[in-house]
Amino acid sequence: MIDSHCHLDVPRFDVDRALALERAFGAGLQGMVIPAIGPQAWEPLLRWPARDARLQVALGIHPQLLPELPESEDDVHLERLDGLLGQGVACAVGECGLDGAASARAPLERQLRVLDGHLRLAHKHRLPLLLHCQKAHPALEGWLERVRLPAAGAVLHSYSGGAERVSNYRAHGCWFSFAGPISWPEARRPVEALRAVPQDCLLAETDAPDQTPAPYRGQRSEPAFLLQVLDAMARQRGEDRAELAERVTDNSRRFFGRPFAPAPALR
C-alpha cells in the first residue's frame, strides 16, 4: 500500500513523527508521498528521500497558503521552485490548485496565475501535478480546456467533484485519489464518484493529518489509517480489499514513477 498524499511534515506530527512512520510501515504501507504546501517546507522535505526512499516528496504552493504570501513574491517563489525541482529529487509538482474558500483573500485570477506557473514547471521537469480543487471545479474545468497537462498527468487529490465530472476530467488526463471521507456514513457524492472512476487511474490517500477515516474520525489522521480508506473503497466498489490495494499500489508506482523501495540494510 502507498499513501499517495499525506502531510507528515507539518507541525502536528512533530511530537511523534517517528512513531507514526513505525505504525504506517507496521500496518503494511510500502511508501508515501509527502507534498509541501509552501516555500518554507521545500528544502527540509528534499532531504527525506535520501534517508528513506519509501518517503517521496512533492514541492508546490497550496492555494490556501497564498493569502499568507505577498503576491509580489509569487514569481520569486516559482523561480526558486524551478531550481529545487531541477535537483531531480521531487516526484511531483504540488500541492497546487484552486480553492474557492481562499478566493476572498487570494482571488482566483491570482490562483490561476500561480497554477499556470506550476504547470510550466511540471512540463519543464517532466513531472506530474498534484491538484487541489475545493469549491472551484468550474474554474478548474475551464483551466483544463485552455492548457495541456504534462505527459506524466495530474491527480485530483481527495477528489470532490462528483461522478458527473469524472469523464471530463479523465478526458483531460486526470487521475483520482480518495481519502477518509469515502468511509464516512453520510458520504454520498464521494461514493458515487469513486464508483465512476476507472480502475487504472485510481489512487488512495489519507491526507493526514486531516480527513480522518472512520472509525477514527475526530482524531488526527495518519498514514497507518490508509487501511481504513482502502477498506471503505473496496466496500463501496464491491471489490476485494487485497486486490484493490494491489491495484492502487501499482497505479501509484506508475503515476509517480518511483519504486518506493526501502534503503538496503547496512552490513
Topology:
Blueprint: E1 2-3, H1 17-26, E2 31-35, H2 39-46, H3 48-51, E3 55-59, H4 74-85, E4 92-99, H5 108-125, E5 129-134, H6 137-146, E6 154-156, H7 166-171, E7 174-178, H8 189-196, E8 202-204, H9 226-237, H10 241-256
Helix pairs in contact: 4-5
Provide an overview of this structure.
The chain has a single domain, classed as Metal-dependent hydrolases (TIM Barrel), CATH 3.20.20.140. Helices cover 39% and strands 14% of the residues. It contains 10 helices and 8 strands. It has helices spanning 17-26, 39-46, 48-51, 74-85, 108-125, 137-146, 166-171, 189-196, 226-237, 241-256; strands spanning 2-3, 31-35, 55-59, 92-99, 129-134, 154-156, 174-178, 202-204. An 8-stranded parallel β-sheet has the order 1-2-3-4-5-6-7-8. Helix 4 packs parallel to helix 5. The longest helix is centred in the middle third of the chain and has 18 residues, at 108-125. The protein is globular and about 50 Å long. The model has no long low-confidence stretch (mean pLDDT 95).
Summarize the structure in short:
The chain is an alpha/beta fold and 267 residues long. It is 39% helix and 14% strand.
Secondary-structure-derived class? alpha/beta
CATH architecture: Alpha-Beta Barrel
Helical percent range?
25-40%
Q: Cα distance, first to last residue?
A: 28 Å
Strand order of the largest sheet: 1-2-3-4-5-6-7-8
Helices, by number, come to 10
User: What shape does the CA trace take?
Assistant: globular
Report the mean per-residue pLDDT as an integer: 95
Cα radius of gyration in angstroms: 17 Å
Quote the CATH topology.
TIM Barrel
Unreliable stretches: none
Order of helices and strands: EHEHHEHEHEHEHEHEHH
The largest β sheet comes out as: 8 strands, parallel
Q: Spell out the CATH superfamily.
A: Metal-dependent hydrolases
The overall strand count is 8
Beta-strand level of the residues, as a percent range? 5-15%
What is the C-level CATH assignment?
Answer: Alpha Beta
Integer count of domains: 1
